Amino acid sequence: MPTAPAAAGALTPDAIGFLDALAIGLNATSPAYSLAAVIGPLVALVGVHAPGVMLASFVPMLLIASAFHFLNRADPDCGTTFSWVTRALGPTTGWLGGWAIAMTGVLVVGSLADVAVGFGLLAVGADGLADNTLLREALTVVLILLMSWLCVRGTEVSARFQNVLVLLQVLCLVVFAAVAVYRVYAGTGSLDAVRPSAGWLDPFGAGGPALTGGLLLGVFAYWGWESALNLTEETKDSANAPGRAGIWSTVVLLATYVAVAFAVVAYAGTAYLAGQADAEEDVFASLAREVLGGWDWILLLAVATSALASTQTTIIPASRTALSMARRRALPGAFAHIDARRGTPSTSTWWVTGTAIVWYVVIHRISENALADSLTALSLLIAFYYALTGIACAVWYRRRLLRGPGPFLLLGAGPLLGSAMLIWLLVESVGDMADPSNASSSTAWFGLGAPLVIALFLAGAGVVLMLLRRAASGAFWRERPGVAPEASVRRA
């Protein structure tokens, strides 16, 4: 059935369905890349309890995903956190939440595309080209531009592309995990294999700062599922399907992450993985050869397609948040432009793309460490706007919380608990990063851990831009917080 044409100045309605939204939510998290990026540092922090930390990280994600679902039912807006926090907590807080979402896209798009290029070259045996920094940087920029072009071409085109990529990477991950576990039990592993144990699911085994750092890595690994909700105005059954897609994305990710973490730790052992912590996603390149031998391209392809898919889907929330902000006059009106023929936010998409390319090139030229520090800073921004969303849900529905156990738990206690966990994690992480000797990066800038400096710089830039925009046009800041209509959620 052909998609209904978009009204003038509107996104294309009913462009995708629930399964498309689910695929986009999964691909936005980039499961294979996320696992490759965090498994080494995670094992270095918590040892064999890595699967347990991935399980514990799921809890706040599920609670916040529930908040996203119920807020979307009341206000299906492509700006998600920006729109909801503005209406629940006020324009200033909403603007900062929207800025955080936009900056997450800027921070990570270049890194994702760089990994897609690197692993893609390794998968086809072009190892020498993968080590050519200048060529890799050029191909990364070209790839970002290509993925942005697909986003502008149309949401249906993007969804079809994402459906293929999510099936491919999940299939590759399943093959890798199955072979790794088989070789552990068959005794044919080439590393220090360890038989899996149910005790690995205990996230408190390492305790203390190690758990805090591990949970922060877990938050990064799960981040991205809300891209399904940024497409709410373009999804069939917009009040329900995007929220359900977000929740189911976290559940599928839980199963994938715990299964692969068990397989990797069991096959490689903690000493090997901890020793590869500084290699980050490259640990999967070496593991692919150890586990699969000549078939190592299977895992390399999984990481490449994962990063490729996420490069595209990460542009979606940033661009549509900018669109929503412009519609409310929180950003200049040019960001609200929608391509009349394709029904996509072309201007905001290209602005996000351009900013992300500049950030990638500059940071990449500074050092590889700086690129990794950008990802750690990203986790702080994620925890911030997720926590804001949970609080906004409880405030928005505050008049419904005492109507029964369902509304109290699902609309109030659950989102607030998820927010409290993320705020605790945020505060602990900032404290750790303030001391470079405790930071997740060995790099120190201005006497602080580099990730904290990056996060503070972006936060400061956001405040300055907000004040400049408010001075130029204060219309948005005259909005007053409100609550959801009584009929917005019929049954919690």
UniProtKB/TrEMBL annotation:
The chain crosses the membrane at residues 96-122, 134-152, 164-185, 205-225, 246-268, 297-319, 348-366, 378-397, 409-427, 447-468. It is found in: Cell membrane. One of its GO terms (cellular component) is plasma membrane. The keyword Translocase does not apply. Coiled coil: none annotated. The keyword Membrane applies. It is a multi-pass membrane protein. InterPro entries: AA/rel_permease1, APC_superfamily. Its main location: membrane. This is APC family permease.
